[in-house]
Amino acid sequence: MARITEELIRRRSEHNNLEITTLEEISLHQQDIEKIEHLDKWCRNLKILYLQSNLIPKIENVGRLKYLEYLNLALNNITKIENLSGCESLQKLDFTVNFIGDLLSIESLKVNEHLKEIYLTGNPCTDYEGYRDFVIATLPQLQWLDGREITKSERITALQKLPELRQSIERQQLLYEEEREREKEREEEKERDKGKPGFNSRWYTDPNAHVGPENGATTNNKRDTEDNEDENFMKEPVSHTPESRIALHKHLSEKRQTKTQETKPVQRERRLERNGVMLNINEGKYDFHLTEDDNNNQFVLDVSCPRFMDSSLVDCEVHPTFVRVLIKGKILQLVLQEEVSPDQSEAKRSQTTGHLLVTMPKSKPVLRPKRNETMTKESKNKEKDIGTGQAQSDLLLEVSQDKPSIFNIVKESETHVISDSPPPPPLKPVSDDFIDDPDVPPLI
């Protein structure tokens, strides 16, 4: 038996950010629900409620839905219209293809002043003589019945013959209830004749039916037997009753379950190691970056997790020689080149990108050579001299004739010319009349 649970309602309220207290519309169709419950407590603001294609036999627990405007109960096992007087805002009802034989129960809708439209197509009560006129005369606020608009002349005619119509409906309804009781007795008698508890009386197989090829292949026999049973079940004439609908539902559910078990893929066994050596595995094909931070002597693993995935779906394990991350049941396992310290490792998740960052310090410290103190002092003094600009003008670069090198630094007085080209001529004045007078201000 499927029930209305909080998880089901939240799953069906994605359009309302999974909030059920402010929910105004919800669709619970084709959920195999057999009872209406909890909606009048959890979803008080509902305006539209879809419950079609279920196995609901009774209208209940909706009287507190004061704002409910549309209720769809098509393709269920409803036999009577009841418990809707508290739905003050109700405007539309859909009872298509149910088992409503109690047409007099429609009088309970007189208090629903805003009711404008109702569907009863496919119910036994629609076969009663004078059905439409009786409904029109009983519910004066109604404007549409079974998709047809109610005219003024039609309403006047129905109101004039309402007393006669009511007596006729009572007689026909009584005959229907007697026939319904006989059907139940026949069903019970058939169950007793079968003599098998829980055996479906609709599911009957002819003992002379062909069950397979003559060679007696067991696989084909089983398959042919199932096909014959399905064919007999579907072709067997049955009355349109709630019991037949429940039997059909059970049969289809068993078939779906059997088909699911047959087509269920066989899960391969996970191999995390081979001959005692851990393997690199990425089942989810997630993007990742494993880097080695030499400055901090650690490994850093960056995994691109889905941004909006809940952190409860992520699990991380750090071992001395490998790291394992479990994301939504998929394993990401990486082998490390050096041993790390699991106790000092840390895993964090970004709140903006959703990435998982795992830092794993190495267990062995890095040994660095000591620097010579004397050499360090000399290098510092040279850097200081060069930085202050002292003695830079006294140092020149010279290329030796014997062995060319750019590292021979000598004083300016010790330099000599190594080129054979003559020196450049002195600069000539611009003109003969030019006088270099320092008192003359410069040109602007």
Poorly predicted parts: 201-219, 389-400, 411-415
| Spatial strand arrangement across the major sheet | 1-2-3-4-5-6-7
Q: Please report the number of helical segments.
A: 8
Order of helices and strands: HEHEEEEHEEHHHHEEEEEEEEEEHEE
| Computed structural class | alpha/beta
CATH superfamily of the domain at 6-174: Ribonuclease Inhibitor
Give the overall form. Answer: elongated
Sheet having the most strands: 7 strands, mixed
- Radius of gyration (Å): 46 Å
Query: What is the residue-mean pLDDT, rounded to a whole number?
Result: 80
Extended strand count:
19
CATH level-3 fold name of the domain at 6-174? Leucine-rich repeat, LRR (right-handed beta-alpha superhelix)
Helix content: 25-40%
What's the architecture of the domain at 6-174 in CATH terms?
Alpha-Beta Horseshoe
Head-to-tail CA distance between termini:
102 Å
Strand content: 15-25%
CATH class of the domain at 6-174: Alpha Beta
Please characterize this protein's 3D structure.
This protein is an alpha/beta fold. Among the domains are: 6-174, Ribonuclease Inhibitor (Leucine-rich repeat, LRR (right-handed beta-alpha superhelix), Alpha-Beta Horseshoe), CATH 3.80.10.10; 277-361, Immunoglobulin-like (Sandwich), CATH 2.60.40. It is built from eight helices and 19 strands. The strands form five sheets. A seven-stranded mixed β-sheet has the order 1-2-3-4-5-6-7, covered by helices on one side. Strands 10-15-14-13 form a four-stranded antiparallel β-sheet, with no helix packed on it. The chain has a four-stranded antiparallel β-sheet with strand order 11-12-17-16, with no helix packed on it. A hairpin with a 6-residue loop joins strand 16 (346-349) and strand 17. Residues 201-219, 389-400 and 411-415 have low confidence and may be disordered. Its main location: other. Keywords: Cell projection, Cilium, Coiled coil, Cytoplasm, Leucine-rich repeat, Repeat. Residues 178-196, 370-386 have a biased composition (Basic and acidic residues). Residues 433-444 have a biased composition (Acidic residues).
